[in-house]
Amino acid sequence: ETGVTQTPRHLVMGMTNKKSLKCEQHLGHNAMYWYKQSAKKPLELMFVYSLEERVENNSVPSRFSPECPNSSHLFLHLHTLQPEDSALYLCASSQDRVYNSPLHFGNGTRLTVT
Amino acid sequence: AQTVTQSQPEMSVQEAETVTLSCTYDTSESDYYLFWYKQPPSRQMILVIRQEAYKQQNATENRFSVNFQKAAKSFSLKISDSQLGDAAMYFCAYLPTNFGNEKLTFGTGTRLTIIP
Q: Which residues, given as ranges, of chain B have pLDDT below 70?
């Protein structure tokens, strides 16, 4: 069983829908991350939270809205997405943001925008 | 900006044989970390091995070892005695030590197939 759980596993949504991705970590970590994984591209960091405070936002479009209500939970709210937003969205956590604190990933949410 | 290049989109190896996956990176930093992550069909990225640039000794984790050539900026992964469970995407990643995890840079991955 993974220490980082993501739901749903698959999501199909229309461009006018609003949906949310959920991530929960059971590892007592202080930092959480959202990544976008598209085919044949490197993983793209979207957001980083440390102790529930956003510390990094890599110029992500406003149609993606993160929320971190506590150190164990992370959400990615989606609205008016585009077909090019179809991808695997991975959540990760680490003990701290520091360089020697390895990332632990969830199984991802496969998002398809129609 | 740092870049990580994995020039082999796909590789295959016979079960029980040895395979080497290539990775090169570009950086002006002198100290950094390098990683290999594995992503099996379950989609969960798992850390396979980590190398600290200031250590000359190559990292080893059971059947997995690296060949770290700092001057050449090369970081290859060797998998010995390949097993069916090794089939996955493998990603090389780079992280400078004076930054947080948000500066982790990944390559595009190599898909490894194990032939029974």
A: 1
